[in-house]
């Protein structure tokens, strides 16, 4: 896989509505984030909804749709083994950020990270994904409603917080994927 792939208008409208119903449930906790720098001098805290891979909707329904769309599923394989049988979902969770809740540069577990952006959004609200190379921002991917972004899990990255004037929660759903050798 190259550094990243962007899929706009990813889910159909009926799924977007259901996704938003699920991620606006009162399951959020304030245990997301991490530390950056060797002395842990920069700490990040934001909202988190963990364990979504265990839920039928995120761990099976949406995951199957993503596998079909992003990992080479072909309708001609309907009655045979799918070509993506070596792709495994490791984790799925949601992150939520309000103003001032920046992420910190980090790499992910697994082989591929998939992020989905469910919010209606304006560019000037910030909250964009920064991909880094050699400790420098190499590329910025704009947060955009119904956008799905895939990138190598070993790429250092972080998301910025929304601007102070945005009064809501900038949400993303993450699927962490392992690719097994054939």
Short description:
The protein has 182 residues and is mostly beta strands.
What does this structure look like?
This protein is mainly beta and 182 residues long. The protein has a single domain, classed as q2cbj1_9rhob like domain (Jelly Rolls, Sandwich), CATH 2.60.120. The protein has two helices and ten strands. The protein has helices spanning 13-23, 56-70, and strands spanning 4-7, 29-36, 42-49, 87-97, 112-117, 129-133, 136-141, 147-152, 157-159, 170-179. The strands form two sheets. The chain has a seven-stranded antiparallel beta sheet. A three-stranded antiparallel beta sheet has the order 7-6-9, with no helix packed on it. Strand 2 (29-36) and strand 3 form a beta hairpin.
Order of helices and strands: EHEEHEEEEEEE
CATH homologous superfamily caption: q2cbj1_9rhob like domain
Determine the number of helices (DSSP H or I, runs of at least 4 residues).
2
Low-confidence stretches: 74-82
Distance between the termini: 16 Å
**CATH architecture assignment name:** Sandwich
- The secondary-structure class comes to mainly beta
Q: What percent of residues adopt helix (DSSP H or I)? A: 10-25%
| Average pLDDT figure | 87
What is the name of the CATH topology? Jelly Rolls
Number of strands: 10
Q: What is the CA-based Rg, rounded?
A: 16 Å
Quaternary structure: single chain
Strand order of the largest sheet: 1-8-5-10-4-3-2
Describe the global form: globular
Tell me the count of domains.
1
Strand residue percentage: 35-45%
CATH class: Mainly Beta
């Amino acid at each position: 896989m190259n550094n990243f792939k962007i899929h706009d208008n990813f889910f159909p409208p009926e799924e977007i509505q259901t996704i938003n119903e699920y991620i606006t449930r009162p399951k959020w906790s304030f245990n997301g984030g991490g530390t950056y720098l060797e002395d842990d001098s920069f700490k990040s805290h934001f909202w988190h909804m963990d364990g979504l891979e265990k839920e039928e909707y995120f761990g099976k329904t949406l995951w199957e749709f993503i596998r079909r769309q992003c990992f080479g599923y072909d309708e001609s394989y309907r009655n045979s083994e799918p070509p993506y049988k070596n792709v495994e979902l490791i984790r799925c969770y949601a992150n939520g950020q309000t103003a001032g809740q920046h992420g910190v540069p980090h790499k992910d577990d697994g082989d591929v990270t998939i992020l989905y952006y469910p919010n209606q959004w304006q560019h000037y609200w910030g909250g964009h994904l920064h991909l880094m190379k050699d400790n420098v921002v190499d590329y910025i991917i704009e947060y955009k409603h119904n956008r799905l972004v895939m990138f190598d899990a070993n790429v250092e990255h972080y998301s910025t917080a929304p601007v102070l004037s945005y009064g809501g929660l900038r949400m993303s759903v993450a699927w962490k994927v392992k690719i097994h050798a054939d």
